[in-house]
């Protein structure tokens, strides 16, 4: 079964055009036909960052992309223009549910003056392949070019005002939890369809109108995985990421899947926002806590990721750099005895999605082997899982999310925390959620909501079905 616009069956895209390669010197300004999502485009358009708007794999409406190297369109959920300053999205007042370690001392971890994820002043210089100052990390040959930074995802950027009144929904939530009994369906109806901007406004309105903490009230009125899902929604994406990271590393053992889900394949702006909020809420740097949970080369891999020096989405794909990365990957894996793990980690952690897509295609063209297969053969454990996520996100991020959802439900028992958090994270962007549903149906021949229904029950089932877009 297929649907319009889905990438071709080959994960490497369409064959190169006759009489020429994909990479050329920047041509005179002209328009080209937009290629299908997932395949390497003709005439060096790997760098055209595609964000489907009409369904999985379809390019956004409007004129075709401009000349080689043009910046990509805004990602899903980004405002068309800079919003006026306001108070929307400001951190809620301290409460037991907000700070897992208690309120911080005054002034601790104050956010940067320009908002989460926004560096002060002009954007820093972006180097293709630049590596954080780790003495043992592999450093490819860089070339220094400045490119527009990728905007933060909805809920991770500066405060925004939106034309929406949260007061009626705040009153509905209070009524659903007030007195004897709880109206669970009403809680689902109110919380499951809000975007990141609305959920922060709703949480603040609940505090302002009823002098109560919404998250604390939900915890006192619900239980089990139903409670867990509602709390994830009420926190919003940034605050929930912080709490999940803390819980994944607190106490004995480490939930490596949570670290992978939250920290990998994120933009520099989102990572900076997560690190700033983690320091403010948990009273310690995120890097310090990650170092204490990981070890050896996996620790170094995540330190590269947390350095937030990934190529911005607007950075172009350059033939010479792609060829160098392809050869470096081969020489670090199949081309030698043993594996140079840090060379592979550096390349996949520091390239943007378009560059990784080009690397994956060119590797297959040159060495007649799927890079995904090479990683599975050469690596194991946590590092293998992390590298596969980085590679697969670059080649098809919607299919990756679909596979992660299935992984949470496959086999004996359901990994409820992973299933709930992955669905909640996917649903914050409605276009993304629609594309993930389509990708899941294309791969597994079943609707994701139907699959979730068979793995859950009761109010917890109704909540996840609503997050998937099913009516309540």
UniProtKB/TrEMBL annotation:
Transmembrane segments: none annotated. One of its GO terms (molecular function) is calcium ion binding. PROSITE patterns: ANNEXIN_1, ANNEXIN_2. Pfam families: Annexin. GO terms for cellular component: cytoplasm; nucleus; plasma membrane; vesicle membrane. Keywords: Annexin, Calcium, Calcium/phospholipid-binding, Repeat. SUPFAM superfamilies: Annexin. Residues 1-143 are annotated as: Disordered. Residues 1-18, 58-125 have a biased composition (Pro residues). InterPro entries: Annexin, Annexin_repeat, Annexin_repeat_CS, Annexin_sf, ANX14. Residues 44-57, 126-143 have a biased composition (Low complexity). It comes from the Eukaryota. The keyword Cell inner membrane does not apply. The keyword Repeat applies. Belongs to the annexin family. A pair of annexin repeats may form one binding site for calcium and phospholipid. This is Annexin. It comes from Neurospora crassa. The gene is anx14.
């Amino acid at each position: 079964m297929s649907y319009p616009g889905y990438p071709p069956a080959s994960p490497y895209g369409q064959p190169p055009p006759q009489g020429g390669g994909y990479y050329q010197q920047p041509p005179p300004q002209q328009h080209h036909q937009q290629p299908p999502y997932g395949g390497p485009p003709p005439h060096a358009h790997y760098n055209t960052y595609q964000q489907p708007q009409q369904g999985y794999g379809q390019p956004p409406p409007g004129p075709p992309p401009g000349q080689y190297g043009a910046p990509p369109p805004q990602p899903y959920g980004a405002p068309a223009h800079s919003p006026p300053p306001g108070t929307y999205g400001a951190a809620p007042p301290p409460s037991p549910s907000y700070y897992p370690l208690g309120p911080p001392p005054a002034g601790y971890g104050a956010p940067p003056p320009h908002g989460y994820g926004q560096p002060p002043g002009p954007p820093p210089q972006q180097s293709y392949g630049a590596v954080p100052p780790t003495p043992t990390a592999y450093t490819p040959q860089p070339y220094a070019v400045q490119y527009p930074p990728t905007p933060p995802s909805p809920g991770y950027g500066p405060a925004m005002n939106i034309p929406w009144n949260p007061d009626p929904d705040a009153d509905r939530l209070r009524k659903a939890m007030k007195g004897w009994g709880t109206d669970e369906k009403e809680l689902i109806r109110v919380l499951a369809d809000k975007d990141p901007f609305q959920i922060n406004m709703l949480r603040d309105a609940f505090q302002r109108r009823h002098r109560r903490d919404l998250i604390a009230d939900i915890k006192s009125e619900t239980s089990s995985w139903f409670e867990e899902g509602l709390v994830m929604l009420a926190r919003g994406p940034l605050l929930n990421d912080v709490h999940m990271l803390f819980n994944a590393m607190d106490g004995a053992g480490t939930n490596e899947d949570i670290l992978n889900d939250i920290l990998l394949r994120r933009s520099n702006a989102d990572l900076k926002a997560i690190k700033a909020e983690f320091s403010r809420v948990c009273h310690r740097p995120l890097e310090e806590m990650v170092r204490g949970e990981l070890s050896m080369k996996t620790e170094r891999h995540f330190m590269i990721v947390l350095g937030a020096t990934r190529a911005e989405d607007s950075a172009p794909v350059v033939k010479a750099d792609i060829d160098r990365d392809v050869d470096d990957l081969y020489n670090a894996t199949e081309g030698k005895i043993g594996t140079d793990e840090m060379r592979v980690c550096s390349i996949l952690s520091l390239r943007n999605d378009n560059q990784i897509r080009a690397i994956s295609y060119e590797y297959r063209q040159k060495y007649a082997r799927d890079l995904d297969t090479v990683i599975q053969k050469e690596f194991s454990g946590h590092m293998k899982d992390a590298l596969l996520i980085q590679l697969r996100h670059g080649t098809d991020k919607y299919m990756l999310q679909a596979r992660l959802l299935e992984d949470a439900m496959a086999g004996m028992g359901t990994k409820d925390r992973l299933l709930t958090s992955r669905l909640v994270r996917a649903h914050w962007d409605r276009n993304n959620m629609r594309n993930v549903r389509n990708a899941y149906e294309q791969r597994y021949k079943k609707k994701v909501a139907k699959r979730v229904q068979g793995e859950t029950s009761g109010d917890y089932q109704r909540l996840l079905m609503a997050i998937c877009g099913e009516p309540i």
